[in-house]
Amino acid sequence: MRTSSWMSLAVVPLLLCLACSPESELPGDDVVSSQSSALVVSGGSMLSARYQHTATLLANGKVLVAGGGTPSGSYATTELYDPATATSVSGPSMLTARRAHTATLLQDGTVLIVGGINSSVLSSAERYDPATNTWSAAAPLPRISYGHTATLLTDGRVLVAGGVSIVTSTYVYTPSTNTWAATGSLNAGMMSQAAVRLADGRVLVAGGSNGSTSSSNHAEIWSPTTGTWTTVASMNTGRNGHTLQLLSSGKVLLTGYVTAAELYDPSANTWTNTGATAVQHFSAPSVTRPDGTILMAGGSYNTMQVELFSPTTSTWSTVGTLTQSRVDHPTVALPNGRVLFLGGTTYNAQGNMQAVASIEVFDASATCTPTTCTAQGKTCGTISDGCGGTLACGTCGAGQACSSSNVCTAATCTHNVCTTGSSLNKDCNSCTFSVCNRDPYCCTTAWDSICVSEASSWCAIAQPGCVVSQ
């Protein structure tokens, strides 16, 4: 059964341990852009298929996988995944089943879980201690929340901002006293925004839902000195399902939702478009590798490319291909340069969303065998060969269009996007393309009332007549 559309808006931010150590690195950027040895390999499987879970790299090298669930329910169960052996063992269950929560690795090595949802929206919080392998209750967040961000501050506290109901209230958690304190309110409510701590200790939040749109371009910065929020320059493009990564230069890379990436310069308070990704990644978390490059993969259900951003050249390179389509998959950068993609969601042949148990690993040291258009079932356009190169898969015949999944499809819509009816072809107009990227049900099963509502929210439609103008 199809889940409600609000589920797709829940973004689960991940705090990743990025401790550096010697590693086998990628070749120079000029080599990567044409051909590399990069490959995505199997990392085994979690014990349970999960989505809207968190994955946190612990100081002992294990990855704590917590909560999440399937479209039919939420989990309290946890797993401890060992990247060295590609195996997972059961961990102690959380005190409360939850998904769409946040997980923050604290300075003492414990993990703070905040909010989320099960049969209701939660305010509860809890902490995991790797030393004792146990969970204990933490002071609850003063409000119920999911879709918020939780950012570790330089002094060890945690800033929680935004969340369900597009709230403006923000709070700071102090681990040593297990207490929450209200801090300055956002100038505009946010939900499913992205957040990152800047080099000077301030926190930048940007995008998400704001009540009037699900893809705002609004941005604000919080100061730990004054506890106040300041509205800063707006992003060039509104976004949802995006991420922010701090670069060594002090600038911030914004990526996801659209192909165009942006750089934010805190000193100049400007957003500047930078190198674009080859494909659209929606709800595909990016991570920073120890060498400073940034990796992201998958998203949008039909996107399986793995792409790497070089801060030195401000360009993206396709460096591999996932074998399993996945969205909202926690992504973890390891100290040896490898990157884990854990679970997430995909859609089965019947068009129903299902959770994924498999784990894939980007491994720059692996040997790569290029794929083919035929092996991938692609009939048009260009795709990655899985090894950093590209393949030309041909052109479509009359009356067909090359879809975003590189398959020739009929190019006309069978009915108006403001009318319920049979499923629509994703590529018959720009509105169906936008809606079906985020809600594949509309193009696999039926264009129901939810699809009509999404068209009204996500497409520029002029009334009367419900004519798509974009």
If you had to describe this structure to a student in words, what would you say it looks like?
By secondary structure, the protein is mostly beta strands. The protein is 7% helix and 36% strand. The strands form 12 sheets. Strands 1-30-29-28 form a 4-stranded antiparallel beta sheet, with no helix packed on it. A 4-stranded antiparallel beta sheet has the order 2-3-6-7, with no helix packed on it. Helix 3 (430-438) packs across helix 5. The longest helix has 10 residues, at 449-458. Residues 3-37 have low confidence and may be disordered.
List the helices and strands and how they pair.
Blueprint: H1 29-32, E1 39-50, E2 54-57, E3 63-66, E4 69-70, E5 73-74, E6 78-82, E7 87-91, E8 102-105, E9 111-114, E10 125-129, E11 134-138, E12 149-152, E13 158-161, E14 170-174, E15 179-183, E16 194-197, E17 203-206, E18 219-223, E19 228-231, E20 243-246, E21 252-256, E22 258-265, E23 270-274, E24 287-288, E25 294-297, E26 305-310, E27 315-321, E28 331-333, E29 339-347, E30 353-363, H2 373-376, E31 382-384, E32 390-392, E33 400-402, E34 408-410, E35 421-422, H3 430-438, H4 441-444, E36 446-447, H5 449-458, E37 461-462, E38 467-468
Antiparallel strand pairs: 1-30, 2-3, 3-6, 4-5, 6-7, 8-9, 9-10, 10-11, 12-13, 13-14, 14-15, 16-17, 17-18, 18-19, 20-21, 21-22, 22-23, 24-25, 25-26, 26-27, 28-29, 29-30, 31-32, 33-34, 35-36, 37-38
